[in-house]
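Aim 2 progress update. The chain analyzed this quarter is reproduced below.
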Amino acid sequence: MRRLLAVVCFAAVFTALVPVEAADRLDAQRLAVATALPSNATAAIDRLVEDGIRAGDFPGAVVVVASSEHVLYRKAYGARSLEPRVPNDPSTIYEFASVTKPAVTTTAVMTLVERGVLRTADRVARWIPEFAANGKHNVTIAQMLTHTAGMPPVFKESDYGADRATILRHAYEAPLRFAPGSGNEYSNLAFIVLTEVIARASGTSYERFAREAIFAPLGMRDAAFDVTIDAAHRARLAPQLRGESEELLRKRFGTVPGVNGHAGLLATADDVAKLAVGYLRAARGMPAPGFPLAPQTVRAMTTPRYVGDGDVRALGWDLDSVFSRNRGEVLPRGGFGHTGSSGASVWIDPATDLAIVFASNAHYPDDKGASTVPLESS
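Predicted structure tokens:
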């Protein structure tokens, strides 16, 4: 993936030389389909993705590259699933795993901040009094968003398969691993708790707020969580594990439905690209139709908030850490993005005017990467 994104960034140097029709402009309702990269660049991207499929890293993928004005590249590769074998196409719905953290949970928090309902300096216990147990009374929303709260990385093993209320109760009871603000440890549990902050502050459920404040205005028509996906959408869902059942979903998400804030976003690459382009436009000070955040909010949330131990983090978004290798070797510091364990990646770079979305189901079929599959692309 590092090599893939490095090639994409290098190719962007040439995009100004390639004409793009006015019909291929982005708007809030439609993601245009275009190939505005030179053939040598697209060939390099194709080779890298297809090499990954041959190596069994993933059975298929969708790549979307966009500027603030145009879709520069959009292509599906390989297979959606192997049993039965279904060729991939851009309509495939992928599970974006931890990309959910910044793309949905953080965006929702900052939407409430912009509306004057929340402040990032608010103590979590202001909204969830029971969270104050075991010395957590001073933990702030900003610390949860930057993984500096001291929250445990994951919920305890016995909670896999538990209902959401049980997971939240145990999160409220959990002691901190270090004093808030004194260190950095990536925490899924922190973002699970933030879903309840969003629900209490907004007066509606986390998933409904995400749908009404983010997905619908941006035209992210296929974006949902497991609780809301219907049979027609499920038919386009790329499976994460062979013979995925409700039991396997419990093991993967910790609960069914998988509305936990740290993972669980189901969407097409086009859906996520719409959100990424909204961030890109706002970061460049441009109007972003349907996007819920103002440019000054995006600038504030993508400013470094934690620097230490080789990591640089913003609110929700990764800037420069061991987890941000999806930035590649050519994209400059100053962008922001995130990865997901499912093989998902988003990187947004205002300096080069690029938003890059990579979607795959790398756990499939046996949670060890895909077996070798014949290549098909569309």
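Residues 39-54 form the longest helix (16 residues). The two ends are 20 Å apart (CA to CA). These observations will guide the mutagenesis experiments scheduled for the next reporting period.
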